[in-house]
Amino acid sequence: MSATPRFYILHGDDSISRQGALAKMRAAMGEDAALNCSEFDGREASVPEILAAAKSLPFLADKRLVIARGLISHITRKGAGQAGKQATKRLIDELANLPEFARLVLVEEELLSDKNAVLKAARESGSGYIGAFKAPKDLTAWILGRARAEYDAEISPGAAAAIASVVNGDLLRAESELHKVVCYVDGERDIGEADVAALTPYVPEANVFEMVDALANGDGERALRLIYQSLHDNPKDPGFSLYGLIVRQFRLLVMAKDHLDTGGSSQAQSMGRALGVRPFVAGKLATQSRAFTLEQLERILKHLQRFDQDMKTGRIEPRLALDLLVSSLARQ
């Protein structure tokens, strides 16, 4: 392998690390970047067009950077036909023969299969660089580490888990939510769950958890305050959406209670798989379900179903139903 690779394959679903590697390559171009960098959408540009750009002499510089996104997956996809095979062969044949000044970067958003023809040929040639960027399995741990390494900030495990619970595995969104909360706290203190709740879509779910905690403690006044706050924060919702979240919460609590009572694991990952929820949510459900008996939870569900029927038939307004619900549940 030459001291400086002429082509690079950056693939994988860890978009943050992948983009970071690409940013370093751009930065290495220095002041010549604007005149000697080209980007292509590999689904639209042809292999000859991309190769021609990589072989074009740089302007008043010693290297040219060409970035092609999605090219490999496009030309090697099922159904690409003869055109795809010809494009793949042309790319493989040319990779090892790029000029000294070329820096051709092939970027893929997903991990390529080890059987991918271009990837196999690149490995065998030994003349390029292959970087595989795999998204972390434990997003909470990633957020904890990212906060320290990138922002020199401390975030509680609960706050990190709260961010992870709303981004559905999307690293870019996790980074965005983390950046928001870091700026919000501005180094004045460690980042807590309340800070996440103040800035992210996690807040409605968090309010429901708090409301159920209040009901478990017989604190109907606090439960009502949380309900009114949720309705105030979501003026377009007359109460149906919030009521739906409450129904869902108690259904999950019944499932959690039954899971634990029948010998199921209380470990968040295992319980999350059994209930079909995120581990962070499963951990909270395990704790919260201990405040109720299974009989109490089943009785509460019957209350919810009755009020739900009354709302759907127009016999009661959602907000009044929520008031009556809290009054009845706080006495359970």
Q: What is the average per-residue confidence, as pLDDT, rounded to a whole number?
A: 86
Distance between the termini: 72 Å
Shape: elongated
Rg from C-alpha positions? 27 Å
Please write the string of helix (H) and strand (E) elements: EHHEHEHHEHEHHHHHHHHHHH
Structural class: alpha/beta
Main β-sheet, spatial strand arrangement: 2-3-4-1-5
As residue ranges, the low-confidence spans are none
The tally of beta strands, per DSSP, is 5
Tally of separate helices: 17
Helix content: 55-70%
Beta-strand content: 5-15%
Structure commentary:
The chain is an alpha/beta fold and 332 residues long. It is 61% helix and 8% strand. The protein has 17 helices and five strands. The protein has helices at residues 15-28, 33-36, 47-55, 71-75, 81-95, 117-125, 139-151, 157-167, 171-185, 193-199, 203-216, 220-233, 240-261, 268-275, 279-289, 294-312, 318-329, and strands at 7-11, 37-41, 64-69, 102-108, 129-132. Strands 2-3-4-1-5 form a five-stranded parallel β-sheet, with helices on both faces. β2, α3 (47-55) and β3 form a beta-alpha-beta unit. α5 runs parallel beside α6 (117-125) and α12 runs antiparallel to α17. The longest helix has 22 residues, at 240-261. The radius of gyration is 27 Å and the shape is elongated. The mean pLDDT is 86.
